[in-house]
Design brief:
This protein is an alpha/beta fold. Helix content is about 50%, strand content about 15%. It has a single domain, classed as P-loop containing nucleotide triphosphate hydrolases (Rossmann fold, 3-Layer(aba) Sandwich), CATH 3.40.50.
Length: about 210
């Protein structure tokens, strides 16, 4: 089973991805993780991506999708994947359809984690990340040590309230149409209320998948 997790920044996709993967017996795949792994491993696509990153340029969709394809072809993804942050625009959705077709697979469902904008602003403006390992935290204060690696907790500039509102505007313009693209393509889609306790959100997501 291959499932695309969809939703505004801060909707909880990163929290729910491993929980759903465990319940469904599949692996998780996040764009940032496989990109960093490819760069670290020095694969051909990883070296190409690093060239863009070193110049401060965006890594093209074709390179990202190539790295995602290489990851999905590994044995660990034979049973499927929870795709977190892989599809953000309609061209990426179209490209991902080609990737899956080339592997003899398809996107089986899309889950849209829905949270009101005011709640998103509250959540993200309260979030800290480790400057070293990028692990996010909803508790603690700036300057605290990271419980995971000992690095320093910081607040990212794009987690300031005005920056968050801008990110939400970008989401509505570029990413929201992806949900309708999947619906028009005949892929099962479902909106999940992503407010409330984490366990309850997981339960709603599994119910939406018929599990």
């Amino acid at each position: 089973m291959n499932i695309v997790l969809f939703g505004k920044p801060g909707a909880g996709k990163g929290t729910q991805a491993p929980r759903l993967a465990e319940r469904l017996g599949v692996a998780t795949l996040a764009t940032g993780d496989v990109l960093r792994a490819a760069v670290q491993a020095g694969t051909a696509l990883g070296r190409e991506a690093k060239g863009y990153m070193d110049r401060g340029a965006l890594v093209p969709d074709a390179v990202i999708l190539g790295i995602v394809r290489e990851a999905l072809a590994a044995p660990g993804y034979a049973r499927g994947a929870i795709l977190d942050g892989v599809v953000r625009t309609v061209p990426q959705a179209e490209g991902m359809r080609g990737v899956m077709a080339g592997l003899g697979r398809r996107i089986d469902a899309v889950l849209d984690f829905d949270v009101a904008n005011d709640e998103i602003v509250r959540r993200l403006s309260s979030r800290l990340v480790c400057a070293a390992c990028q692990t996010p935290y909803m508790t603690g204060k700036v300057g605290d040590p990271c419980p995971k690696c000992g690095g320093v907790l910081v607040r990212r500039k794009d987690d300031e309230p005005e920056a968050i509102r801008h990110r939400l505007e970008v989401f509505e313009a570029q990413t929201a149409p992806v949900f309708e693209w999947y619906r028009a393509a005949g892929t099962p889609v479902a909106t999940v209320d992503a407010t409330g306790p984490v366990d309850e959100v997981t339960a709603r997501a599994l119910k939406a998948l018929g599990r």
